Amino acid sequence: MAVFTVIPAAFLPKLSIDTTNESFFRKDDRALVEYNAFKDQFGKDELFVIAVQGPDVFDPGFLAQLKSLHDELKTRVPYLDDITSLINARDTRGKGDTLIVEDLLEHWPRTGRELRALRERALSNPLYRDLLVSEDATFTTIILKAQTYLAAGDVDVFAGFDERAPTAPAERSRLYLSNQQNREMVDAIRDVLKHYDGPGFRVYLAGTPVIVADLEAGINKTLQTMIPLSLLAVFVFLFVMFRRLSGVIYPLLTMILSLLASFGIMAAAGLPMTHITQILPTFLLVVGVGDSVHILAIFYFRYDGGADKEDAIAYALGHSALAVLMTSLTTAAGLLSFIAADVAPIVDMGLIAPVGVMIALLYTVVLLPALLALFPIRRAALRRAGTASAMERLLAGIAKFSCDNPIKIIWIAAVITLLSIAGMTSLRFSHNGLKWLPDDYPIRKATEVIDEHLKGAVALEVMIDTGRENGLHDPDVLNRLEHSVDFASGLSVGELQIGKAWTITAILKEIHQALNENRPEFYAIPQDRKLVAQEFLLFEGSGSDDLEDVVDTTFRTVRFTIKSPFHDAMVYKVLLDIVHDHFVQVIPEATVTTTGVMALFTGMIHNVITTMAKSYLIALSVITVLMIVLIGRVRIGLLSMVPNLIPIMAVMGMMGWLGISLDMSTILVGSIAIGLVVDDTIHFMHNFRRYMEQTGDVRQAVMNTMLTTGRAMLITSVVLASGFFITTAAEMKNTINFGLLTGSSVVLALIADYFLTPALMIVVYGQRKASGSHQTRSAVKS
Fold it and tell me: pLDDT tens, 253-299?
């Protein structure tokens, strides 16, 4: 067993964390392939956005401080590809017959007149507005763009620039920046900003890369906090229940070794820790402890009754080993259903979690009995018998009440089911990673400030392939693109209001105006194809490389950017459909691809919705079959699923009533919970069938089952629920909701198994009494 742990554990240093948007997709997912093609062509769309607030961003002192910040960021931030602010924003103008393209502050204003001219020029530029400066001139931005590849010098930055779809295998081998480099950039930026933030110069750092980095930090903090807290909670409850160190140390030892082996295998397989799989440590810990508790509860019951150690171990394994095996199989089956998902982290969960469950089973049935046999264990003192007696009286009372009031209990369950269904009708899908963070988290506050004053920092990118070389020299195509800018800029979907849209036409209009004496009426698209080509050529000759950000070198494929506030991915889905349909109608001859971070969000949530229903059905079907096999009767097997489905429905109904959305974490509750809550039912039905065969008396069988298995069910459920409830101390709300809902399902399942399962058995078997050769036995003597 030591070798079985040590070898996988050796890979633990290689366990990585991946919170990028790409981590939600399989490598061959169409959305990810298209997004990588976009990055290969135009670079990363995930930008670091620094909003700077002041009374007047055109104040000389403010501008001087802004320049100092701009220059320091430029020199100190690693992996930086480009930085843009009012300091170096493109300023296109004409001087005689010459086209001049230079930085906005190429010539520093030294007089009040020059400052006023600067203000007027900046605020009158449509591209600057809400991108580099707010309409009221109290906010400005510094936008940082990371390198696309890990080592820019290792690749030809123009490789594939002339290609229609730059997705060749050689290009796919390029290394994109990872979480590690992203974190280094965030840390460097924050280190610079802390020296500038102050009255009159407030700085806010936002952007998708920052959200990714902070979510990664949140996962790290969750792991560092939740594992010790879970261990502490399990330690306390095990000690309270068993009142001896062996009942605490042995289960925890088996689980810690199981965790080391499980996560070592995860690291060896190259599976990263993600938003979803961060729940695995707590989950595997409490699930595995549950296996040990069932063995230990029966062992101590027998051992304290006077049996020798070997007999008590054999009795405990004979009594519970089959049920423990079945509970592990049903839990693993519920988790295996995730493999059918099209979301990579959920698939990873479906791969590693069942492995962890079965490893925990192996340690429970092999290592735990060995520990019990090898080391001395004291018997419970007689003075502790009162505690057990109190528990027996409680369990006996529950058994009697359930047997005496089966119809009432079934009616109550029916009412709860109806209320749950009513609540489930209010369930909605949602995904907003920003909302997972606490309200006062810096990145959340910064994003909300930028959304309010600068209309967002998230981009929907559209790639439009005209299908022909120099297709973007065609004034008709350009006119339709400009019409699309107007359409997108005024678009709203529910509460989502689009902040800005731009494409190649913004550059072209600047050029045309500059070449016509800078007259405002010439801020328009020239309607002559040759003139368009000439003006683009002049711009390229000016030394500016800005065209590379929006068009390929053959002027065949263009980039169209729509800036939006950070919002729910479900709202983005509607927006994407509207935008895609618009371009298909307006430019039907072109190939239109919607991509970018927003499109990834949308593709991800769509994959979840379409696949998780299938996963739920698979989990339910497999577990039902296993129940029928265990019980040996189809009718009873199907009926025994009722106490398992009602708690799941109750939790889903509770989500609806409380307004908790189905997101990337809470949507897992159903499949995970069905695998967990069935555990107690398996133990109950396994032993009920045994006592029914022994006594022939349904009431006595219920009583005997409650006084033996009921004890272990209580302990495992308390440990399991406490392990999940402890996650409510986490920072990230998705983790809190997952723990709250899963813990609630465990508690409700215990109640259902204590009351509804016996009631159903009474109804099915009637008031059958012992007769003939059957002999009623007490739980103590069995």
Answer: 888 888 888 888 988 888 888 777 777 887 788 778 878 888 888 88
The C-alpha atoms of residue 240 and residue 722 are separated, in whole angstroms, by 13
pLDDT at 1: 60
Q: How far is CA 253 from the centre of its chain?
A: 30
- Which residue would you say has higher pLDDT here, 253 or 729? 253
165-200: b (≥16 Cβ within 10 Å) or e: bbeeeeeeebebbebebbbbbbebbeebbeebeeee
Judged against a pLDDT cut of 50, whether residue 386 lies above it is answered with no
Q: Tokens 């009432």 map to which residue?
A: 408
Is pTM, for the whole model, over 0.90? no
Q: Which of 51-60, 258-267, 527-536 has the lowest mean pLDDT?
A: 258-267
> Rounded CA gap, 107 and 744, in Å?
65
- Whether 82 and 135 share a structural domain: yes
Query: If DSSP codes are grouped into helix, strand and coil, which group holds residue 237?
Result: helix
- Give me the pLDDT at residue 769, please: 56
Rg over alpha carbons for the chain, rounded to the nearest Å, is: 32
DSSP element (H, E) containing 235: helix 208-242
If asked whether residues 266 and 288 sit together in one domain, one would say yes
Total domains present in the chain: 2
In this predicted structure, what is the pLDDT of residue 702?
A: 93
Strand pairing of 458-465 and 80-84? unpaired
Same domain, 619 and 703: yes
Tell me the residue range of the domain where 101 lies.
Answer: 47-149+178-206
CATH classification at residue 657: 1.20.1640.10
Same-domain pairing of 760 and 615: yes
Q: How confident is the model at residue 3 (pLDDT cuts 50, 70, 90)?
A: low
3-class SS of residue 461: strand
Q: Is residue 452 part of a domain?
A: no
Summarised one tens digit per residue, pLDDT across range 687-707 is: 888 888 888 899 999 999 998
How far apart CA 178 and CA 176 sit, in angstroms, is 6
Show the 3-state SS of 389-442. HHHHHHHHHHHHHHHHCHHHHHHHHHHHHHHHHHHHCCCCECCCHHHHCCCCCH
C-alpha to C-alpha distance for 138 and 53, rounded to whole angstroms = 6
- Closest alpha carbon to 43 in 508, 539, 596: 596
- Residues ≥6 apart with Cβ < 8 Å to 198: none
Q: Are 650 and 743 in contact (CB under 8 A)?
A: no
3-class DSSP assignment, residue 507: helix
Residues 316 and 399 in one domain: yes
How far apart, in whole angstroms, are the C-alpha atoms of residue 217 and residue 443? 12
Mean pLDDT comparison of 170-174, 294-298, 523-527, 642-646, highest-scoring range: 523-527
